[in-house]
Write a structure and sequence with these properties.
The chain has about 475 residues and is mainly alpha-helical. The protein has one domain: Up-down Bundle (Growth Hormone, Chain: A). About 70% of the residues lie in helices and about 0% in strands. A two-stranded antiparallel sheet has the order 1-2. Helix 2 crosses helix 7, helix 2 runs antiparallel to helix 8 and helix 7 runs antiparallel to helix 12. The two termini are about 15 Å apart. The C terminus is likely disordered. It comes from Perkinsus olseni.
C-alpha cells in the first residue's frame, strides 16, 4: 500500500497518488462540466468563464516546465486542487445571482493557473516514473483512477437530481456543488502530504529519475519555451491542439441541450466510464510485450484512428438524422430522458465519444513518455507544451460556442471531426505509422525511444533486452 513509508517512494505508488489527486480535482470538475454549462440551466452561462480558464491554462501550461523545476510537484498539485474548489464554488454562486457572473469568470482565470500547474506536474511524474516497456500500463492506471472522479461525480449528480422533472429548470442543486468542493479540497490535502520529491523516487526498473538542477527563473522559462522548436512537438502540436477541442461540443452542444438534468448526470458518468475502458484497452495495445516499440506505436495509432472515425460516424448520425436531427435554434425539442425507449442510441454515442477522447489523450501521453526517456525535467516541459497546446484548442472551442458567434451545432461537429482527422496525419510520421517516419528503438533498453538533438536513434535490440521485454505484461 502507498501509505507504507518504504512503498510511498516507488514510482508506481506516486503515479497512483497523482491519479487520486486528479480524481478529486479534475475528475469532479469534469463531472460538473458533463452536466452541461457547469450544471446551470443555460449551457452558455459558463462559456466566458471557460474561455478565460483555457486561455490562462494555455499560457501557464506552456510555461509549466519552469514552474515544475522552481516550485516542485507538491506545491503545484496542492495549489492546483484548491483552484478547482474555488471554481466550483463560484459556479454555484453565479448560478444563484447573475450579479456574480464576474466572480465566475475570475474563477476561470484562477483555475487556468492552477490547472496548468497541476497537469504539468501530473504529466511529468507519470511520464518520468514509468519504465519504457510499461508506460501504457502506468498511463492507463492513472487514467482509470482519474476518470473514476468523473464517473462518481456524474452518478452523484444523477442521484441528487433524480427527482427533477423534464419541465423544471435543468440546473444542478446546491448539494452537488458543495459535494464537489469538499472532494476537491481533499485532493489538495493528499497532494501536500502524499507526494515526494522526484529525486527520492525509485523506478520499477531501478533506473534513477533524472532531475536537472534548478536554474534561474529566466533560464527555466527559456528552457520551457525551447521545446516549441522540437520537430516531434511541432508535428504533434495539432494533435495536442485538437485533443480537448471537441469537449465543448460533447458537453454543451450534445449532452447540455438534448437531455434532462438527471440524464445529463448519468451521461457524464457513462462518458468517463467509457474513458476508463478505452484507456485500459489502449494500454494493452501499447504494452504488448512481444512487439517492438515501433509496432506498438503503430498499433496504438491505428487503434486511435479507428476509434475516432467510428465515434464521429455515430455522432454524425445523431446530429443529422436522429429524430430528424437537431439545431442550435430549436428551442421546442423534447428533452431525452433515461426512461425513453430510444435512449440507447444517444447513450451509445456518449460511449463512443468517451473511448475516442481517451484514446487521443492516452496515446499522446504515451508518445511523450517514450520521447521523454525518464527525465522529469524534460517530461515536465513536454507535458507543459502538450497541455498548453491542448488548452489553446479548448479555448477556441469555448469561444466559438458563445452566443455572440452563433455557430451552429452542425458546424461545430464538422470542425471537431475534420480537426482531429487532419491532426492524425502529422502524428503518423512521429508514431511510425507513416512510411517515412523516424520512430526508432532506444539504444540502451531496446524497448523505447530516446530524444537526441530533437530526434531519436536507431539501434537494434539485444537478446537480453528482448527477454526483458517478453517478460513484461499488463496486469
Amino acid at each position: 500500500m502507498c501509505c507504507n513509508p518504504s512503498v510511498i517512494y516507488s514510482g508506481f505508488c506516486q503515479v497512483i497518488l497523482t491519479g487520486v489527486i486528479t480524481f478529486c480535482s479534475v475528475g469532479f470538475f469534469n463531472a460538473l462540466q458533463g452536466l452541461g454549462g457547469a450544471g446551470n440551466a443555460d449551457p452558455s452561462a459558463n462559456n466566458a468563464a471557460n474561455a478565460s480558464l483555457y486561455l490562462t491554462f494555455a499560457i501557464t501550461g506552456y510555461l509549466g516546465g519552469a514552474f515544475f523545476n522552481l516550485l516542485g510537484p507538491r506545491v503545484l498539485m496542492s495549489v492546483g486542487c484548491m483552484t478547482f474548489a474555488f471554481y466550483a464554488l463560484a459556479a454555484y454562486l453565479a448560478g444563484q445571482d447573475d450579479a456574480l457572473q464576474w466572480l465566475f469568470i475570475l474563477s476561470g482565470v484562477v483555475l487556468g493557473v492552477g490547472a496548468g500547474w497541476l497537469w504539468t506536474a501530473q504529466g511529468a511524474l507519470m511520464l518520468a516514473y514509468a519504465p519504457q516497456d510499461r508506460k501504457g500500463l502506468y498511463i492507463s492506471v492513472f487514467w482509470i483512477i482519474f476518470n473514476l472522479g468523473g464517473v462518481i461525480g456524474g452518478l452523484l449528480a444523477f442521484a441528487l437530481n433524480f427527482d427533477s422533472s423534464e419541465d423544471e429548470p435543468t440546473s444542478a442543486n446546491a448539494a452537488s456543488y458543495f459535494s464537489f468542493v469538499g472532494i476537491m479540497l481533499f485532493g489538495a490535502i493528499v497532494a501536500f502530504f502524499g507526494l515526494v520529491s522526484p529525486e527520492k523516487v525509485v523506478r520499477e526498473d531501478g533506473l534513477p529519475v533524472t532531475v536537472q538542477p534548478c536554474l534561474s527563473p529566466a533560464k527555466e522559462f527559456l528552457g520551457a519555451l525551447s521545446v516549441s522548436v522540437d520537430k516531434n512537438m511541432l508535428l504533434l502540436s495539432l494533435l495536442f491542439f485538437s485533443s480537448n477541442y471537441f469537449y465543448t461540443y460533447i458537453f454543451n452542444a450534445f449532452n447540455g441541450v438534448l437531455f434532462t438534468v438527471r440524464t445529463r448526470g448519468l451521461n457524464s458518468a457513462i462518458f468517463w466510464l467509457s474513458q476508463i475502458v478505452g484507456a485500459w484497452l489502449l494500454g494493452l495495445v501499447l504494452d504488448a510485450s512481444r512487439l517492438k516499440v515501433r509496432s506498438r506505436s503503430r498499433n496504438g495509432f491505428w487503434f486511435t484512428t479507428i476509434a475516432t472515425t467510428l465515434s464521429f460516424l455515430l455522432g454524425g448520425y445523431v446530429q443529422y438524422f436522429y429524430q430528424g436531427g437537431y439545431r442550435r435554434d430549436d428551442d421546442n425539442r423534447d428533452l431525452i430522458d433515461v426512461t425513453n425507449g430510444d435512449y440507447w442510441l444517444p447513450c451509445l454515442t456518449i460511449i463512443g465519444y468517451g473511448i475516442m477522447a481517451t484514446c487521443v489523450q492516452v496515446y499522446s501521453y504515451w508518445l511523450l513518455g517514450i520521447l521523454g526517456s525518464g527525465d522529469a525535467t524534460l517530461a515536465a516541459r513536454y507535458s507543459g507544451f502538450y497541455k498548453g497546446m491542448q488548452s489553446l484548442g479548448a479555448t477556441l472551442g469555448w469561444v466559438l460556442d458563445l452566443e455572440a458567434f452563433g455557430i451552429s451545432y452542425r458546424a461545430q461537429f464538422l470542425v471537431c471531426w475534420i480537426l482531429i482527422s487532419v491532426a492524425l496525419v502529422p502524428t503518423s510520421f512521429v508514431s511510425g505509422a507513416a512510411p517515412a517516419s523516424w520512430l526508432r528503438l532506444d539504444d540502451t533498453t531496446g524497448v523505447g525511444l530516446r530524444r537526441r538533438s530533437g530526434s531519436v536513434c536507431d539501434t537494434p535490440t539485444t537478446a537480453s533486452d528482448d527477454m526483458t521485454q517478453s517478460q513484461s505484461s499488463v496486469s
